[in-house]
């Protein structure tokens, strides 16, 4: 898949996974995200290798991230979206979401999935809604998968 780069006001969004600052992403997800606390760096690296990644940069320094898992035909899962605290309030999360949703390989999908308990206001702007039929939704969830004390 061809890498895409978009520029705006000195910021760049790139899908080139070679530019990602794995340590920065790991630090945020593992220590600040709330949804991936304790994620091993090896697990993060594997998820990046197998996903479509969007890095957000300010003068070459990574300041945000989003990842999509998809078959590029019917379904996509959006996860690990963040913008560092000091860059929030500048419209960057909206721009990041716009670029994710407009990616040419993610058009015409039947379903997008997102699990979040933060920033629902942002995702609603891009068509995400609460599950209409929770009675048909199922999941297998292990919230302690990254915990050192829980069996894997």
TrEMBL record:
PROSITE patterns with a match to the protein in the record: GNAT
Domain (N-acetyltransferase): residue spans on this chain: 15-143
Protein known as: N-acetyltransferase
GO molecular function, one term: acyltransferase activity, transferring groups other than amino-acyl groups
Pfam families recorded: Acetyltransf_7
CDD domains referenced in this protein's UniProt entry, alphabetically: NAT_SF
Species per Swiss-Prot/TrEMBL record: Portibacter lacus
């Amino acid at each position: 898949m061809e890498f895409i780069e978009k520029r705006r006001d000195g910021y760049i969004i790139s899908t080139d996974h070679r530019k990602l600052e794995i340590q920065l992403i790991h630090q945020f997800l593992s220590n600040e995200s709330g949804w991936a606390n304790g994620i091993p760096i090896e697990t993060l690296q594997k998820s990046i290798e197998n996903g479509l990644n969007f890095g957000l940069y300010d003068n070459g320094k990574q300041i945000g991230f989003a990842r999509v898992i998809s078959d590029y035909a019917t379904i996509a899962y959006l996860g690990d979206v963040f913008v560092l605290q000091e860059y929030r309030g500048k419209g960057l999360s909206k721009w990041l979401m716009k670029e994710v949703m407009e990616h040419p390989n993610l058009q015409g999908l039947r379903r997008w999935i997102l699990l979040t308990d933060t920033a629902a206001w942002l995702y609603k702007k891009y068509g995400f809604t609460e599950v209409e039929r929770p009675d048909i939704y199922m999941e297998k969830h292990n919230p302690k998968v990254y915990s050192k004390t829980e069996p894997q």
